[in-house]
Design goal:
The complex is a heterodimer of chains A (about 250) and B (about 800).
Chain A (H helix, E strand, L loop, with lengths): L1 H4 L12 E10 L6 E11 L4 E6 L5 H8 L7 E6 L2 E2 L5 H11 E4 L11 H9 L8 H7 L15 H13 L5 E5 L7 H18 L2 E6 L10 E6 L2 E7 L12
Parallel strand pairs in A: 3-8, 3-9, 6-7, 7-8
Antiparallel strand pairs in A: 1-2, 1-4, 4-5, 9-10
Helix pairs in contact in A: 4-5, 4-6, 5-6, 6-7
Chain B lengths: L3 H12 L1 H38 L5 E9 L2 H6 L4 E7 L1 E7 L7 E8 L11 E5 L9 E5 H6 L7 E6 L2 E12 L19 E7 H7 L5 E9 L5 H12 L8 E2 L4 H19 L1 H22 L1 H10 L3 H42 L11 H28 L2 H4 L12 H7 L5 H12 L1 H39 L4 E10 L1 H8 L3 E16 L2 E10 L23 E4 H7 L6 E6 L6 E10 L7 E4 H7 L5 E9 L4 H9 L4 E6 H55 L4 H38 L12 H28 L2 H6 L3
Parallel strand pairs in B: 4-9, 6-8, 14-18, 15-17
Antiparallel strand pairs in B: 1-10, 1-11, 2-10, 3-4, 3-7, 5-8, 6-9, 7-8, 12-19, 12-20, 13-14, 13-16, 13-19, 15-18, 16-17
Helix pairs in contact in B: 1-10, 2-7, 2-8, 2-10, 2-11, 2-20, 8-11, 8-15, 8-20, 10-11, 13-14, 14-21, 15-20, 15-21, 15-22, 20-21, 20-22, 21-22
Classes of the chains: A alpha/beta (about 250), B alpha+beta (about 800).
Chain lengths: ~250, ~800
């Protein structure tokens, strides 16, 4: 399994990046069970920038965790191109994350004991064909801050390090969980700009989970979630650039 | 290039350096002891063997009154005998200028025109004797050094009643006298015992054994059965006054060093594991805390695609680095302290011409791998948590610690305790196993120290009892052979002698079934005042005439008790074999004596009225005159002054054991510090947020620190009684393990041992607490509250 997932070019990229059918996720059992996903159906084409909207508890983070290979579904299926994520073993999911997936989190989640450069190297070390760690930091405009520890960086800078870390492996898909949630508007726009650049310049499929509806304006596709199901799916005819977004 | 994870590892270790060092030190102490003791065992065994082989130490010694040289041929023909040599040995007294009492010495013959086939000597200085010069001798090096004598100097000695002057040709050592004590004493004192080697012809003349020998040395063939050879030798020598051959096991010097090696080996196997166990526990709590604190980072690494094994290996390396660091430090310190011990203590007590401290490389491998393995055992237990952590779960902050289990307990205490104290109780109640393990760890460490201190105390008490309660004389006199009571009257008449108590010492082999003991019977008067026997409850006992009173160690060794019959093979005079009832068991501390009433003993030997010596009570103002008079009595073979014997014992105790006390206190301190500091650090890390909250709502620094340190105080206070109990238990076990028929120590865990142990634990605990309190004081309120961990 690991071997099969290790070569990105073996993926049949004619298929949609993700194909989700009847996906369910239940936490706990019996009367105390929480149904986070109640049968989601969804297709995400390769190379799109997708925004996943929804209130707290709508199931969007659960969906992202399952598509990102961080968590397992309770039922239904999810495919990454021609590979069935829901059928993979732990080792298979690890390899999937290792070779195809980049993550950006709301709270950056940098290693406090490593410098910016080292945080990126953490990923380039185990990737097959990574960008240089310095190059990745250059892409997010942090080439001057490579030797700083997270504690010496502002929130926006930390998030950009996190993005550099996520794109350094040239992921097929980049998942962003509330990437601007902890940032002010100016810094938030800078971060969104970087994500947009990653999508257009590297061709990476970018999936952003957020409850900030304004972000939706920059997406190819907007998916609205509520109560663990896909409530609405719209394709933007006119996309705004990150700088144009109303905050 | 160092990978980023390895850099994280190094920075983590640096951040936790004091904790890491505290754990590494515990490991280092364990490894130090292991390497040092193992190395000493190895060095002593190998050096002894090499020394014995190179200088051809005999395997059987057969003392005899006087046997003509041709008897040696009969011995040589015994099956299993590889080589035989006859020699002359005898007691001598050496006069030292300015010293009231002459020094006892053993004179040993060397063949005149060849080197000895057995029991050769190591010439340390000068040259061998020229057999044509009768006045030339070789002198035991330790004695020569103690009295500043060198080759060329002269020495005056009395042999068989006649006084002669000798010239020292050289200084020598011998495998036969590795551990040399004055007759009847247990502790070597270089200044008070000498060995003189001289021409066989000259010595034979001095002791009237021309053309004969009074000791046969026998080397055995590899396959020979010593017991069988001894029996045959005894049969041959019987009619010449043989007093019973014995093998190396009963050779006094070898017996001491064998005991030393045995107890070192035992300690090296039983003590280090305690340290390894404590270190494993500490690593367990430290790593589990690290993993708890870094679960987000672990989740993140998993999200990036790092496998569980890769992440586990990362944390495992933390364990390995600390364990290996501690082990390497311990190896280095073990070699250094081993060298110091070998050169400073062992070479001082055991007279090896060379003693290279050499550790078997396998010991290093064992020490390092045992450290890593036991440390890993602690770590691996936690690594399961890393594997179990799902990346998505790891990314969520941990649920608040659940204290509900302690609710009932705390509710019950509500009326008694204030809020901060209740917080302490809650924490302890929530993790009872961790608290218990910490208490146990400190308790065992402290117990180890208290136990060792107790054994040392027992030793002290043994010396004290022996020289003040059992032996109340000022000096004792040994006669050249058992004489009639006339000598006692002479002693009584001497000016300055207050009391005289005669004794009769007989060398015997005691047998009970298959068990036997080679030693002596002390014939004492029935109500002795100067040299007494004590009952097991330490009160003086009558020496009975209707049977033998055995010391406890001897009764145990022979597996016999009061009421049983004992076979006594007398090894001198007419050599009767007696069957005597055991009537009493006495306490014994040094040595393993057997007592019998003096006239009853003489009667059993059919030698009425004989004495071998006497204990004297002196008017100390006139003691010098008494010693001078004794010197001029031809019947006196030697005088020993009790204070000198006691002083050499005390000297050894102060040098060896005195230093040991500090070492033991430091060991208790290191274990306690390791545990308390790590427990405190972890408690602090887990609760920095809570503590900051307390400060925000108005708690003072002191009150906040109380909440944190109170837990440690409780742990320490619980640990102390456990440490004391463990100390008493361990002291008993150590004392029993160390006791032999040379000395029996009863552990005496007195106030001093308890005090030192308790103090060491308290001091270590206070230092650790103080180091953590500094962090509480520095707690930054805002950032502590902002951070999610």
């Amino acid at each position: 399994m690991q071997a099969a997932m290790s070569a990105p070019d073996q993926i049949d990229r004619n298929e949609p990046a993700f194909r989700v059918r009847g996906l369910t996720k239940t936490y706990g059992e019996g009367p105390a069970a929480v149904h986070a996903l109640r049968g989601a159906d969804l297709d995400i084409p390769d190379g799109e920038l997708v925004v996943l909207l929804g209130a707290s508890g709508s199931g969007k983070s659960t969906l992202l965790n399952i598509l990102g290979g961080l968590d397992r579904a309770s039922g239904g299926s999810a495919h990454f191109f021609d590979r069935e994520l829901t059928a993979m073993s732990d080792a298979g999911l690890t390899a999937y994350r290792r070779h195809h997936v980049g993550f950006v989190f709301q709270f950056y989640n940098l290693m406090p004991s490593l410098t910016a450069l080292e945080n990126v190297e953490l990923v380039t070390e185990i990737a097959d064909n990574p960008l240089g760690a310095g190059e990745a930091l250059g892409l997010v405009g942090l080439d001057k801050r490579v030797d700083h520890f997270p504690a010496e960086l502002s929130g926006g800078e930390q998030q950009r390090v996190a993005i550099a870390r996520a794109i350094a492996k040239r992921p097929t898909v980049l998942f962003c969980d509330e990437p601007t949630g902890a940032l002010d508007s100016t810094t938030g726009r800078q971060v969104l700009r970087v994500l947009q650049d990653v999508n257009t310049e590297l061709g990476t499929t970018v999936i952003i989970v957020t409850h900030a509806a304004a972000t939706a304006a920059m997406a190819h596709r907007v998916i609205n979630m509520a109560d663990g199901t896909i409530r609405e799916e719209t394709v933007n005819k006119h996309r705004l650039s990150a700088e144009e977004i109303e905050w | 290039m160092v990978s980023p994870l390895d850099r994280k590892l190094l920075r983590d270790i640096w951040r936790m350096k004091i904790q890491a060092v505290a754990i590494a030190l515990v490991i280092a102490v364990g490894v130090l002891l292991l390497v040092m003791m193992d190395g000493l065992v190895n060095s002593l065994e190998q050096t002894r063997q090499a020394y014995y082989e190179r200088y051809r130490l005999a395997e059987v010694f057969a003392p005899v009154k006087r046997a003509p040289d041709h008897v040696l041929q009969s011995i040589a023909q015994i099956e299993g005998v590889a080589a035989v040599e006859g020699r002359v040995v005898g007691g001598a007294l050496i006069d030292i200028e300015g010293q009231a009492v002459p020094v006892r010495a053993q004179a040993v013959s060397l063949p005149d025109f060849s080197s000895p086939r057995l029991n050769d000597i190591y010439l340390a200085e000068g040259r061998r004797i020229d057999p044509r010069r009768r006045e030339e001798i070789l002198l035991l090096q330790g004695f020569a050094d103690a009295h500043d004598l060198s080759p060329g100097d002269t020495l005056s000695a009395t042999m068989n009643g006649s006084r002669r002057t000798f010239r020292i040709a050289g200084l020598a050592q011998s495998p036969e006298f590795l551990y040399s004590t004055a007759p009847g004493e247990l502790v070597p004192d270089d200044a008070r015992f000498a060995v003189i080697w001289m021409s066989e012809e000259a010595l034979a003349a001095a002791y009237d054994v021309d053309g004969a020998f009074n000791q046969a040395l026998i080397a055995l063939e590899r396959t020979a059965e010593p017991r069988a050879v001894i029996a045959k030798v005894d049969r041959i020598l019987e009619r010449y006054g043989g007093t019973g051959a014995y093998d190396l096991e009963d050779q006094i010097s070898n017996k001491f060093i064998t005991e030393e090696i045995r107890s070192l080996r035992m300690s090296s196997r039983s003590v280090p594991p305690i340290f390894m166990g404590v270190a494993a526990f500490l690593l367990y709590i430290v790593i589990s805390r690290m993993i708890e604190a870094e679960r987000m980072q672990i989740g993140l690494l998993k999200a990036f695609g790092y496998t569980s094994a890769e992440i586990g290996w990362h944390y495992f390396k933390f364990v390995v680095v600390i364990a290996a660091g501690g082990a390497l430090l311990g190896c280095a310190l073990g070699v250094i302290s081993g060298q110091l011990m070998a050169a400073g203590v062992y070479q001082d007590v055991y007279k090896f011409p060379f003693l290279l401290f050499r550790v078997d490389p396998a010991a290093f491998v064992t020490a390092i791998s045992v450290s890593i393995a036991s440390a890993s055992a602690g770590g691996l237990f936690v690594l399961r948590k890393v594997f179990a952590l799902s990346p998505a779960v790891a990314m969520r902050p941990p649920a608040p610690a659940d204290y509900s289990s302690s609710a009932r307990l705390v509710a019950a205490l509500r009326s008694v305790l204030d809020q901060p104290s209740r917080m302490i109780v809650r924490r302890i109640a929530r993790q009872p196993m961790r608290t218990f393990a910490a208490v146990l760890g400190i308790g065992v460490g402290m117990g180890l120290s208290v136990g060792m201190l107790g054994v040392l105390g027992g030793f002290d008490k043994a010396v004290d009892l022996t020289y003040s309660v059992i032996d109340r004389s000022d000096a004792s006199v040994a006669l050249i052979e058992p004489l009639d009571q006339k000598t006692i009257f002479e002693l009584r008449r001497m000016d300055g002698v207050i009391a005289v108590e005669p004794y009769r010492a007989v060398s015997v082999v005691l047998r009970n079934g298959v068990r036997s003991h080679r030693g002596g019977i002390n014939g004492l008067i029935s109500e002795p005042q100067l040299s007494r026997a004590l009952s097991l409850d330490m009160s003086p006992i009558y020496i009975r005439a209707d049977g033998i009173t055995l010391s406890r160690t001897l009764a145990n060794k022979l597996d016999i008790s009061a009421g049983d019959l004992l076979t006594v093979e007398v090894r001198e005079g007419r050599r009767p074999v007696l069957t005597l009832p055991v009537v009493n068991v006495a306490e014994s501390l040094l040595g393993s004596p057997a007592y019998f009433e003096l006239s009853a003993l003489n009667e059993a030997l059919s030698e009425p009225g004989r004495v071998s010596g006497a204990y004297l009570k002196l008017d100390m103002d006139k003691s010098t005159q008494v010693y001078e008079d004794l010197k001029n009595m031809p019947a006196v073979a030697g005088v020993s002054i009790k204070e000198e014997a006691r002083a050499s014992f005390q000297k050894m105790m102060d040098q060896g054991a005195g230093a040991m006390r500090y070492v033991m206190a430091v060991i208790a301190g290191i274990i306690t510090f390791g545990i308390v500091y790590n427990t405190a650090r972890i408690a602090f890390a887990e609760r920095a947020h809570d503590l900051a909250s307390l400060r925000v709502i108005g708690f003072t620094r002191g009150e906040t620190a109380f909440v944190l340190l109170g837990e440690l105080g409780v742990i320490t206070l619980f640990a102390i009684p456990i440490g004391l109990l463990a100390g008493v238990g361990l002291a008993g076990a150590i004392a029993a393990a160390f006791s032999t028929d040379l000395y029996s120590i009863s552990a005496e865990v007195g106030p001093v041992a308890m005090g030192i142990g308790t103090l060491a634990v308290l001091i270590a605990s206070v230092i650790a607490g103080w180091m953590v309190k500094r962090d509480v004081d520095r707690l930054e309120l805002v950032s502590a509250l902002k951070s999610r961990e």
